[in-house]
Amino acid sequence: MNDSAQTAELSPGHQINIRRAVAPDVRQVVAIDARVTGNGKPDYWQDIYERYATRRLDERFFLVAEAGADQHVVGYMIGEVRIWEFGSEPCGWIFAFAVDPDSRLQGIGEKLFKEISDEFQNIGLKTMRTMVLRQDQLPMGFFRSEGMVAGPYIQLEKELDE
Questions:
Q1: Helix 25-37 with 42-52: angle, nearest 10 deg
Q2: d(CA 124, CA 135)
Q3: CATH number for the domain running over 6-145
Q4: What are 119-162's pLDDT values in tens digits?
Q5: In the chain, what percentage of residues exceed pLDDT 70?
Q6: d(Cα 76, Cα 15) in Å, to the nearest integer?
């Protein structure tokens, strides 16, 4: 994380602060995820916190956005450096992102994206990737508005029979 957390004006008297996640943030991340996906998954998020916010911090980034008078968590973005998967040069990979529905359209996602982009650039990466469902227009539109385009890889999948 940069020496000082990134801040931006949210509304009069309130700022968005982007910083690395700390243990008490997990509860709020679970709540945001539950609002967005309909499934809270506290054990999953605790594991993600332990893997991405406590180890290998030079290549893993669990960022949260806090806002409001009480500076509560209103969004998160998690990424890591991935190296040589299927011959790919080292790149940044965003694999989790959400903004609380009540806090959208206030620049929170953009601030998270800029901070993780800066982190990846600061360690010498030149490319950043993510994956979204084709029919999920909200994240698709967001990532495209941030300059992301289709990359050189095609995702393949197969349904596994029981």
A1: 130
A2: 33
A3: 3.40.630.30
A4: 999 999 999 988 888 888 888 877 888 877 888 777 878 889 86
A5: 91
A6: 16
Residues 100, 111 contacting (CB under 8 angstroms):
no
3-state SS assignment for residue 15: strand
Q: What is the DSSP letter of 3?
A: S
Please spell the DSSP secondary structure of 88-152, one letter per residue.
PPSEEEEEEEEE-GGG-SSSHHHHHHHHHHHHHHHTT---EE----TT-HHHHHHHHHTT----S
**To 5 degrees, how large is the angle CA 136–CA 114–CA 101?**
40
d(CA 157, CA 143): 22
pLDDT tens by residue, 43-63 = 999 999 999 999 999 999 999
Query: Buried (b) or exposed (e) across 109-127, using 16+ Cβ within 10 A?
Result: bebbbebbbebbeeeebee
